[in-house]
Amino acid sequence: MAKSLLTDLSFEELENLIDGLGEPKFRAKQLWQWLNKGADFEQMSNMPKVFLDKLSQNYNAQGIEIYGEFKSRKDGTIKYLYKLSDGNLIEGVLMKYKYGNTLCVSTQVGCRMNCAFCASGLDGLIRNLTAGEILGQVIAVNARNATEKDRGVTNIVLMGSGEPLDNYANVCKFLTLVSDEKGLNISKRNISLSTCGLCDKIKQLADDGFTPTMTISLHAPNDEMRKSIMPIAKKYSIDDIVKAVKYYFEKTGRRIIFEYSMISGKNDSEECARQLAGVVKGLACHINLIPLNYVKERGLDGSNKKSVYRFMAVLEKQGVSVTVRRSMGSDIDGACGQLRRKVINNEDN
Ligand code: SAH
Question: Is 295 in the pocket of ligand 1 (CB under 6 A)?
Fold first, then answer.
């Protein structure tokens, strides 16, 4: 049987485990601190070997390791490739801003959503990540980067491979673990979750008391166009999304972010911008425009600068809060799922 993962456990669960093994309670605190620092059993120097041997019979400490690191020469963004204990590869991106360091984490290996522009969905869903595997990405990057001067990861976006709300329970547990004051203690206000728009789950998240900044991958101003690039649009209409985010806003008080990836000749006309302004009218929201990153297998081109700024001007004129997001790390396969695929393809050849 595959071993369980210690980083899947909350502090209380770890205490119960230690208690069950007949060990004193303070060992749970020691173990928890080591785990959050990215240590494996052999590095846990203040723990008795017999105890660690017993633990390691049934548990892995860290379920994930950094397998590759690619630094952008343009903007210092670092793309990480991680290896999971079953050999699967996932990826993440660390972006350094003046206000802190944002890590983009993956929530699934692959993705079921199969959006027409995205590399992650090309192989379908391979499996969900556990809470500890999502947390492990933050732990591993901190272990590599945090120094006395640099606080390590301060902000998290669930925007890597996978659809977070399609892995609901593990993602919720991750949100609890990562913001635990005794653990990594990342402020709940500094966490964003990006979804293609699973409306029932958006409402459930608010009902369950989670409050990440809700980011919706909209990418189209009407249902017909959205259906042609995002299969999920056949299940939930834009109207459903608007209702769900209104509900989320009422419950959490947090402004909604819409992501709009701009595809040349598809969703970037002035008419699209006018329709989009109509969709978001009256919502407490902000729109991020992102020129699409080119994915070879998908063959769609990003909009040029002129179209992006023309689109933005129409929205601004309608009073919509909008920015063009810098496309970071485009020289290192920055977009969702691109790096993992490239490495797998190279290894196959
Ligand atoms: N499944 C979630 C989160 C993962 S994708 C979601 O759909 O939001 C993170 C963001 O990257 C989404 O907005 C997604 O639409 C976008 N994205 C995916 N491939 C892209 C590409 N090639 N260029 C630009 N944005 C892309």
Answer: yes
